[in-house]
What we know:
With about 425 residues, the chain is mainly α.
Amino acid sequence: MSTVRTQAQPAEVALPRGLLIAQAWSALGDAVAPLSNPEGRPLARTVKLILDPLVLRPVQNPRFAAGAVGIEHVDALRDRITEAGPVLAATAAWFLVVKKERRKAGITDGNPQDLYFQRCYELASAHGDPRLDPAAVAGRAAAVLAEAHRREGPTLAGLRDFVTGHDAELTRLLDTAWAHPPVPRREPGPARPEAFLATCATTPDRALFAALVADSAGSRSAAELDLPGGARVRGLTDLDRPARPVLGHGAAKQNLPKPFDRSVVERLFGAVTSPLRDALDDVPALVRQEISRSAGPWQLADETGRVVLALGWEATVALVGGPPGPAGGATARLRLRWDREAYVHRALRMPSSMPDGVRADVDGVREAYQRRLWVRVHGRELRHDTVTADELWDVLDGVLRSVVLDQRDRLRSALERRSAGGPS
């Protein structure tokens, strides 16, 4: 018996994730309009703050994480959004209620989507549609506003007002701090960072960590930052040498310069807009301390933080082809995490066709890591939260995990734009 063969047609093996989300979202209709753009697609913040972390959960569901979703998972992704429809509709209704209460209270601080989206999802999950219990609506909305706009600790407005009102005095302090900054010694001390990194992930040597701090190992490593290009190759500045910062008057999260290029206001921006700001000193003390800190080694005030920065730079050498060190050590573990990332391999295989900036992310991972580590250590220093030997590995590992998530999201967004025919 003969069999007639037809030419096989190429099967479509994946669909753009953004397109699938938009299709599933459109089926939810007007009930989710407050979370949608004028074209009826979910807002970017809806995807970032609600759909990804609370509905699709790509960390637990890697099949939904890529820019293109395998054809075998398309229905599962659509079903996930469809099943969440009632909660998403209730979230949209709560968002309108909270915004109305915000207007009544005369609140103008912060972006309502950033502040309330996830809180409204929590209200929807716990209480359903606000119209089901109108007597409790105002109280619950007021509680959300109170939580989102706590006034403990210094504020960005207070920071701006103080800097503007004391411009001459603070400029003199900056001039004095930078006129004669400390000059770290370059010769290595007896305590070796690589020895601590070899065991810190499993059995951190507290005595060795203390010896690194006592020996000023962090300050010694900072001597290279003052050499031409030394801080630039570590991703901390765009300048050939670090320069005295200006006081500044404003800051925006979306376009903060690299750490050493930030104004004093920009250096404190993240801390005074953080939920943890109640742990900070008052504004005058914060500003004066930051001026002094900016002229120190690694532009930090505490030697423990400087040691952490030195260890972080040493630990990431394997991410760019350096030796991984002993098995089980921090350097080897970070390299293993990096090697497991599928998007890294994809970027390295496709150098000519990758969207703009994505290959640069992968090639510049060590610099991105050092920037993120500096921000973490700086923030902890502002809150008087010193990193201990026992915490060091969690800090190092957490920073790489954060960098990976950011890079993966940028790659996914770029590929979705390409699939939709938009600019990359």
